[in-house]
Design a protein that fits this description.
- The complex is a heterodimer of chains A (about 375) and B (about 260).
- Chain A is mainly alpha-helical and about 375 residues long.
- Chain A has one domain: ABC transporter involved in vitamin B12 uptake, BtuC, CATH 1.10.3470.
- Chain A is built from 17 helices and two strands.
- In chain A, strands 1-2 form a two-stranded antiparallel ribbon.
- The longest helix of chain A is centred in the first third of the chain and has 27 residues.
- Chain A starts with 6 loop residues before the first helix and ends with a helix.
- Chain B has about 260 residues and is α/β, with parallel strands linked by helices.
- Chain B is about 40% helix and about 25% strand.
- In chain B, the strands form two sheets. Chain B has a six-stranded mixed β-sheet, sandwiched between helices.
- The longest helix of chain B is centred in the middle third of the chain and has 20 residues.
- The chains are: A mainly alpha (about 375), B alpha/beta (about 260).
- Chains A and B meet through helix 7, helix 8 and helix 9 of A and helix 1, helix 2, helix 3, helix 4 and helix 5 of B.
Chain lengths: ~375, ~260
């Protein structure tokens, strides 16, 4: 079986693993500025958020606009836990890890609470509920007791050494990838995609739809919470205004740009958009700052058009990564080669379009319900 | 008594004021090929929806192997051994053919590895995934779809999609397989192949209840039929006798 190593399955680990090793070496030789360390943390956080949201939107097919809400819960409660633990353990990795786990678990609990209505609501309705959840969470923290969560001033968190904070962020990212990918490439993942493709059929073959929907929401909230805790340590202070619905939409944009249900795509798009953001912030300062959003939007529009325009299809097919790679390695597909299941049987369907997710649910689903 | 697989007793369901099914009785013996026929809107699919747990019966009971399954959840009923196909095909369209069958194998006890097993890729995961794959191939071979196993299921021609749905239902290892108009939209060649497949399934010891409009198909397959009209049983018994019953002919053809 060794000859059949499924490189495709490990590509995400390889990308992240190599990046981790390179940057760890660079940071050990202290050739990374603190701003690039900050950028690395940001990228890791963005990827964790995107991959976890991708599980809900891309694989389960439910539109959730409250991802920043889970992140907010994680950030505040994890941050607060760290503040409380600091006198006990000091500024150590112990404090950091306990805070991470507390933040993630409480976010997961809220994931369960939000998952419950998700069982009854579909499409736009669920989107509204999750959107409201995110906004409620944010304003609760904003109006909280200043003694407790800092109120409008924000919560100050302990300062950990940047040199290892980003390494921890990457390790968590790695764990997140392993867990989510391994779930997707198992019978549980198949059940989740089955629910997305046809819930009625999924029920008819004995899949426990309730269990899987809740499971997905809990796992996604867990990692969003963890990303939130990391965010709070990365920024030193957290403002509740950060976690508004714009942030949720930004994560959604990363998921959509990377391709629904495509994890490698999610990683790339999260990295790209985060770097773009940071670049624009450094290039366009002062009066020009208003142009940041304009440029960002323009670049996004170009990408979306490039990805979807019918006329550009031949160009895309000629110059996509896969065909360029095939040309470099001079590898031709052998048509006579027996199709081997090992590679293909668990190919995760990725061609789910946004409009399918949005429209599929309400109208067509209701029509479909009328079976006879 | 022991060889009765499905026993429906005095089943009724109403939607608001509409009495869709009234006092419906049915007894199917093990290994039987049973037909449920009737004009459009007679309530045939409603019977299917009740015995698979989609609708809850207003009154009455049904038993599978003596166990009362009335008003149980769809999952529970599926685990107990009633599987179905749909009148309008419901495949997992974005998935490959084999993956559709693998999803069907989901709830079987032999392949009950946990989330934990799959996250850590424990030996149990690998072993059972391999077994599932072999089992899925076996099922696909039975419905002659092995050669197209890696195609996306929505790209299959209509007849093959029907067969795939049957394979997916079989993957749940049912005692009773309910087929809702399996031959609808098929050409004569495909219909003939389908009949062979249904006989093969029956020979595995699976009892089959099928809804069908094609009378040639029904009389070629079924030992016994029940005719349903406006929610009532019009006739029931040996296929030949029932289909020649003047009442039945009138309900179908009119006059």
């Amino acid at each position: 079986m060794m000859k059949n190593i499924k490189w495709k399955h490990y590509v995400n680990y390889i990308i992240v693993g190599i990046a981790t090793i390179i940057f760890t070496i660079l940071s050990l030789t202290s050739s990374l500025s603190s701003s690039s360390l900050y950028a690395l943390e940001k990228i890791a956080i963005a990827i964790i958020l995107t991959v976890s949201l991708s599980l809900v939107v891309g694989f389960l097919g439910e539109l959730s606009l409250g991802h920043a809400g889970f992140m907010c819960i994680g950030a505040y409660l994890g941050g607060k836990a760290a503040v409380l633990l600091e006198p006990v353990f000091g500024n150590t990795i112990m404090t950091l890890l306990i805070a991470l786990i507390i933040g993630a678990l409480i976010a997961a609990l809220f994931g369960f609470v939000i998952g419950l209505p998700a069982l009854r609501l579909k499409g736009d309705y669920l989107a509204i509920v999750t959107l409201a959840f995110g906004e409620i969470t944010r304003s609760l923290f904003m109006n909280s007791d200043p003694e407790l969560f800092g109120g409008t001033l924000g919560l100050e968190t302990p300062r950990f050494d940047r040199n290892y904070l980003f390494i921890i962020a990457f390790i968590i990212l790695f764990i997140c990838l392993i867990i989510i990918q391994n779930i997707i490439r198992s019978k549980h993942g198949r059940a989740i995609t089955a629910i997305r493709d046809n819930e009625i059929a999924a029920r008819s073959i004995g899949i426990n739809v309730t269990k899987y929907k809740l499971m997905v929401f809990i796992i996604a909230a867990f990692f969003a919470g963890m990303a939130g805790v990391l965010y709070s340590f990365s920024n030193y202070t957290i403002q509740s205004s950060t976690f508004d619905y714009n942030y949720s939409i930004e994560i959604l944009v990363m998921v959509v740009l990377g391709g629904m249900g495509n994890i490698t795509g999610s990683i790339l798009s999260a990295t790209f958009l985060t770097i773009l953001d940071i670049r624009l912030q450094t290039i366009l300062t002062g009066d020009m700052a208003v142009l940041q959003d304009v440029f960002r939007s323009l670049i996004l529009i170009v990408f979306i058009i490039y990805n979807n325009a019918e006329r550009l299809r031949p160009f895309r097919e000629k110059y996509n990564l896969k065909s360029v790679w095939q040309r470099i390695t001079m590898k031709k597909k052998d048509p006579n080669k027996d199709q081997d299941d090992e590679h293909k049987w668990d190919r995760v369907p990725t061609k789910i379009k946004m409009d399918e997710i949005l429209t599929l649910n309400v109208n067509s689903q209701e029509k479909e319900d009328k079976d006879d | 008594m022991t060889d009765t697989v499905l026993d429906i007793k005095d089943l009724s369901i109403s939607f608001g004021g509409l009495k869709a099914i009234e006092h419906f009785d049915l007894e199917i013996k093990k290994g039987q090929l049973y037909g449920l026929v009737g004009p459009n809107g007679a309530g045939k699919t409603t019977v299917f929806n009740i015995i698979t747990g989609v609708y809850k019966a207003t009154s009455g009971h049904f038993y599978l192997d003596g166990e009362d399954l009335t008003n149980k959840s769809q999952e529970y009923i599926c685990h107990k051994g009633i599987a179905r196909t749909f009148q309008n095909i419901r495949l997992f369209n974005n998935m490959t053919v084999i993956r559709n069958v693998l999803v069907g194998l989901h709830s079987q006890k032999e392949y009950a590895y946990s989330l934990f097993d799959s996250i850590l890729r424990l030996p149990r995961f690998k072993r059972e995934e391999k077994e599932m794959r072999d089992k899925a191939k076996e099922l696909l071979a039975m419905v002659d779809l092995l050669d197209v196993r890696n195609d996306i299921s929505s790209n299959l021609p209509y007849g093959k999609q029907r067969k795939l749905e049957i394979a997916r239902a079989l993957a749940t290892e049912p005692k009773l397989l309910c087929l809702d108009e399996p031959a609808a939209g098929m050409n004569p060649q495909e219909t003939k192949e389908l009949m062979d497949i249904i006989f093969k399934i029956r020979d595995l010891g699976i009892t089959i209840l099928l809804i069908e409009h094609d009378m040639k198909f029904v009389s070629g397959l079924c030992d016994e039929v029940t005719v349903l009209d406006f929610g009532h049983i019009l006739a029931s018994g040996k296929t030949k006798e029932v289909l020649n019953d003047p009442e039945v002919v009138r309900a179908y053809i009119g006059g």
